[in-house]
């Protein structure tokens, strides 16, 4: 940007370290490492969400809900019988890549866990077909 502004004025371009030197000269600026941030998560940072959490906080206060009554539930699913890739030991006479055949079972299992705000957990549930 600085070079573009200078080019419009027929001035020479800035040096290699101009940007970092500029930041050092400005007491109101500083550098920080940038980290990736998921777009879907960033979309949730709006006043509606902040307002919703305010309502939750007000409801907790209004009805005297204690931390022991506030739970976080987590659910995950995985396929039974699926063999993961990994390091194996084989004989030196074997050529090519090692392979493991999985049984072809496509049954899904769901695991559910709950923990309350006081760090007390309910025993996990495992749900299978049938």
């Amino acid at each position: 940007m600085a070079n573009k502004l200078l080019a419009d004025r027929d001035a020479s371009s800035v040096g290699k370290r101009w940007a970092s030197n500029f930041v050092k000269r400005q007491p109101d600026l500083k550098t920080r490492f940038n980290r990736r941030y998921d777009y879907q998560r960033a979309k949730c940072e709006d006043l509606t969400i902040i307002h919703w959490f305010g309502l939750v906080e007000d409801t907790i206060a209004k009805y005297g809900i204690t931390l022991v009554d506030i739970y976080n539930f987590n659910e995950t699913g995985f396929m039974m019988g699926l063999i993961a890739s990994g390091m194996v030991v084989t004989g030196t006479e074997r050529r090519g890549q090692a392979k493991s055949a999985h049984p072809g079972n496509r049954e899904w299992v769901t695991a559910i866990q709950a923990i309350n705000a006081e760090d007390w957990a309910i025993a996990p549930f495992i749900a299978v077909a049938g």
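Residues 29-91+100-128 form one domain. The chain has one domain: 29-91+100-128.
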